[in-house]
Amino acid sequence: DGGITQSPKYLFRKEGQNVTLSCEQNLNHDAMYWYRQDPGQGLRLIYYSQIVNDFQKGDIAEGYSVSREKKESFPLTVTSAQKNPTAFYLCASSDRAGSDTQYFGPGTRLTVL
Amino acid sequence: GENVEQHPSTLSVQEGDSAVIKCTYSDSASNYFPWYKQELGKGPQLIIDIRSNVGEKKDQRIAVTLNKTAKHFSLHITETQPEDSAVYFCAASIRGGSQGNLIFGKGTKLSVKP
Predict the structure, then answer these.
(1) Which of A12, A20, A26, A113 has its CA 20 to 30 A from that of B31?
(2) Is A69 exposed, middle or buried (0-12, 13-18, 19+ CB in 10 A)?
(3) Chain A residues with CB inside 8 Å of B49's CB?
C-alpha cells in the first residue's frame, strides 16, 4: 500500500518542550515538504527537501527544524522557540523537485497545553 | 513572490446544483494550477490540475478553466452531491522552479445541502 504516513495523528505538548512529527513515504519520491495549516488559512510552507541530506527553509521556518537522512523520511521538530505551535501539520512529497504534483499525508494535529 | 487569492470563502448550494470557485494569481510565470479537496481532519487530496498550455480540463463532474491573460482559474463542480461537501484549495506553482512548492489560496468551504 503506497503513500505518505504521518504519526502521531494527535499530539499534545507542554510549553517549553520540543516535539518531533514523523513523515514517511514509500512512493520513492525525491522531494518532501512540511506545511502548517491554521483555521481558515491556506497551507504555509515550513521546510522542503529536494534530496537526501539537503533541505531549505520555507516561508515560516522560524522555530522549526528538519532532517533528511533517508529518502523516505522527513521528520519535523517543533522547538520551544516556536511561539504559536498549535496547528495542523501536513507533510507532502513529489516525484522530484520542480515536479509540481504534490501528494499529502493525513496530517498531525499538535496542541500545546 | 506569488500570491493566490481564492473566492468565495464559503459556498452553500443545493444538491444537484453547480458550484464554482475562483482563484487569481499574481506571478505570470506560474504554469501549474492544482485543486485539492480536504475533508475534516484529513490531508488534502488532489482532485484535478491544469497546466498553462491548456485552457480547460474535465474529469467527470469536475472541470477547471484557466485564463492566462487575466491570471485566473476556476473550479467547476456540476450535479453536486452531499459528499462534495469539503474545503477546496487552489494553488499555483512554477513547474521546474527551484523550489517546486505550491502557493495556496485560503480555501473555500463548500456545503451541499440535500
Answers:
(1) A26
(2) exposed
(3) 100-101
